[in-house]
Each structure stands twice: as structure tokens, then as C-alpha cells.
Design brief:
363 residues, mainly alpha, DNA polymerase, domain 1, hpI Integrase, Chain A, 3-stranded antiparallel sheet, 8 strands, 52% helix, 10% strand
Length: 363
């Protein structure tokens, strides 16, 4: 039975309800005082019913398993769930899985990050591990399993952002010329004219393409693990109008694919994909990258990432005076603010044009 309880507000603005139950301190947290009070009442009610279980012996491994199944799985995409599970299995459990949840310290996490970096793992991988720990420990804090989220007191290595490299108009034309007549011509035409993500291109089905209307609908993407999922965000599901040359490239690509299908016969796997292998199966990211690099060499273009074709499309659209909100919608960005921040380096040149127009109007 509880001996005492109280409600206080923390320095971070959240409210904390505390109680001593059977000689052990327990805490619950809420964004408002009312929420914390309700959680505390529930905690005390469970204690009266004998439902409270001692949490002091729970290990991080047990907590992560429960968090994965009860919290992560219902809320994230299957590919994201599998990514979380793999990070936990490979990196977190071997180092900290047996650690008691309430005894976990910032030093434990910092040591894990340091050991991962020493093994040569990228800062991005360490940061993803940190993200899993941060989210799972936030849940532990909110449910009263721990008194603080120790991940907030750690510093994972800084993730170096990839330099954005966009092709200019002549380079874009050279790349399309290098791909002319090949299986990547239509894919590169789409990438450069629409700014579609690589996963959206690889997941595109003919059923989502209307060549007569000159448009397509982005409704899914292919992950690096070979599975299909919904687009990255709500705004990523979109309809994109196509220019005439891209429609022509898609028509030619469709003809070549039908000829390929006849040649393959029973070996053909009908996934309905616009861009697939010689037997109709989904393309692998590594194979696409290998062939993409070959085309860059052929076009005498310095090596870039496939994702930089998306930046190229956005940059060329903005330089062509396409309204920012139209560019944002074609890219499937979550907000126009993201588009403006990402391509702020392109916008000043347009600002000069606006200044000239205002001078003509008001000067």
C-alpha cells in the first residue's frame, strides 16, 4: 500500500506524480497537471488491487521487446519496425541488454556509442541506435518505469549531412543522352522532370500511370529491403503531371518491356512494375546505383548520388520560375517550409527578379 504521494512540476514543464508503494518509489508523468494526477490515481488504484508489479528487475532487453511489439509495431511502417528490431539485435542488446532498466545511466549509452564508432560504424548508424533508445526510454519514462530518460544526457556523434549536388541543365541533358534507348532512359527522365524519390520510382506500377492523360500517381515506394510500403509522408501521395518528352520515353520503355516479357516467357514475374529486372522482378538499389554510375561516366559527369537527381529537378524547376508551392507539391514535401529551407540557395536569384519587377511597378 502507498505511504505517500504528491504532484510537482518539473523544470521541463511536465508534471510528475510520485508515490511510495510497498517501500518503493514510483513515478508517472503528464503534459498537464490533470494528466499526471489521473495517472497517479490509476497507479494507486492498481496498487490497491495488487496489480502493481515490481519493475526494478526489468532489464533493458525485456523493455525493448515490449516497446517494439506494443508501441513501435502498431505505429510505424513494417520496414521501420524491422530496422528498429535489427538495430536492437545487433547493437543494443549485446552491449546493454542485461542491464537493469532503472540502473541504466548516460555513461552506459555513451560507452555504447563510443564502442560503435571505434568499430568503424558510421555516425548515421550510431544516431539511429540513439533514436531507438531515446524513443523507447521516453516510453519508459511516461509509464513510470524509470525516473528520467538517460538518453537526453548523451551526445551521439554528429551526423555529417551529404552535400547537395545538383546537375546543371547541360549535365542533365548529357545524362539523358547517355541513357537514350536504354532501360534507364525513362527512369532518369522521370527523376529529372518530377523529382520523384528513388524508392517511389522503383515502386511505380503501370496501374498508377496514365500515358493518355500524361500523369502518374505516387501511391507506394520500394524499400531497400525489397518490400513495398506507403509513401514517406501524407503529402508524398500525389498526382504528378508529366511533360511530353517523359511520356514519350515511358511509351518506348513500355514497348521494350513488352518485348522483354515475350522473350522471357514463363520466366517472367508479373509484378506490374514500370521499372523492373529483365524478368519483371523489383530492381535492387545496389544494381541501380552500379548502372547509374556507369551512365555518369558515359556522360562525363562527376559522381553524384541518385538522390541528387531529385535535387536537380527541384533546382531546375525553381530556376525556371516555377512557384515554390508547385515545386513542393511535385516533390511530395511535408510542407512548403521544408522546400524553402532545402532550396534557399536557389531562391535569392529569383528575389532579384522580384526586385526588378517591383521597381517597374513602383519606380
Amino acid at each position: 500500500m502507498p505511504k505517500k504521494s504528491n504532484i510537482t512540476q518539473r523544470a521541463d514543464g511536465r508534471w510528475m506524480g510520485r508515490a511510495v508503494i510497498d517501500g518503493k518509489r514510483r513515478a508517472v508523468y503528464g503534459k498537464t497537471q490533470r494528466e499526471a494526477e489521473q495517472k497517479l490515481r490509476n497507479l494507486l488504484s492498481d496498487a490497491d488491487k495488487g496489480l502493481t508489479q515490481p519493475d526494478e528487475q526489468r532489464t533493458l532487453s525485456v523493455h525493448l521487446d515490449r516497446w517494439l511489439e506494443d508501441i513501435a509495431r502498431p505505429r510505424v511502417k513494417p520496414s521501420t519496425y524491422r530496422s528498429y528490431a535489427l538495430l536492437i539485435k545487433l547493437y543494443i542488446k549485446p552491449a546493454l541488454g542485461s542491464k537493469r532498466l532503472q540502473k541504466l545511466s548516460p555513461a552506459d549509452l555513451q560507452a555504447l556509442y563510443g564502442a560503435m564508432s571505434a568499430r568503424g560504424l558510421s555516425a548515421n548508424t550510431v544516431d539511429r541506435v540513439h533514436g531507438v533508445l531515446r524513443s523507447s526510454l521516453r516510453h519508459a519514462l511516461d509509464t513510470g518505469l524509470v525516473y528520467r530518460n538517460v538518453s537526453q544526457a548523451t551526445r551521439p556523434p554528429s551526423v555529417r549531412r551529404h552535400e547537395m549536388r545538383a546537375l546543371d541543365r547541360e549535365q542533365a541533358r548529357a545524362l539523358l543522352s547517355a541513357a537514350k534507348g536504354g532501360r534507364y532512359e525513362a527512369m532518369l527522365a522521370l527523376a529529372l522532370s518530377t523529382g520523384m524519390r528513388q524508392g517511389e520510382l522503383l515502386g511505380l506500377a503501370w496501374g498508377a500511370v496514365d500515358l493518355e492523360a500524361g500523369s502518374l500517381r505516387v501511391v507506394r515506394q520500394l524499400g531497400t529491403d525489397g518490400t513495398f510500403s506507403s509513401p514517406k509522408s501524407r503529402n508524398s501521395t500525389r498526382t504528378i503531371e508529366l511533360n511530353a518528352s517523359t511520356v514519350a520515353a515511358l511509351r518506348e520503355h513500355r514497348t521494350r518491356q513488352l518485348e522483354e516479357r515475350l522473350i522471357q516467357g514463363e520466366r517472367w514475374e508479373d509484378h506490374g512494375l514500370v521499372f523492373g529486372t529483365h524478368t519483371g522482378r523489383p530492381l535492387g538499389y545496389r544494381n541501380v546505383l552500379r548502372d547509374f554510375k556507369t551512365l555518369l561516366l558515359k556522360a562525363d559527369i562527376p559522381e553524384i548520388r541518385f538522390h541528387d537527381l531529385r535535387h536537380t529537378a527541384a533546382t531546375l524547376m525553381l530556376l525556371a520560375d516555377t512557384p515554390l508551392h508547385v515545386v513542393s507539391r511535385r516533390l511530395g514535401h511535408s510542407s512548403i517550409v521544408l522546400t524553402a529551407n532545402t532550396y534557399a540557395h536557389v531562391l535569392p536569384s529569383q528575389d532579384k527578379d522580384v526586385a526588378a519587377r517591383m521597381e517597374a511597378l513602383l519606380g
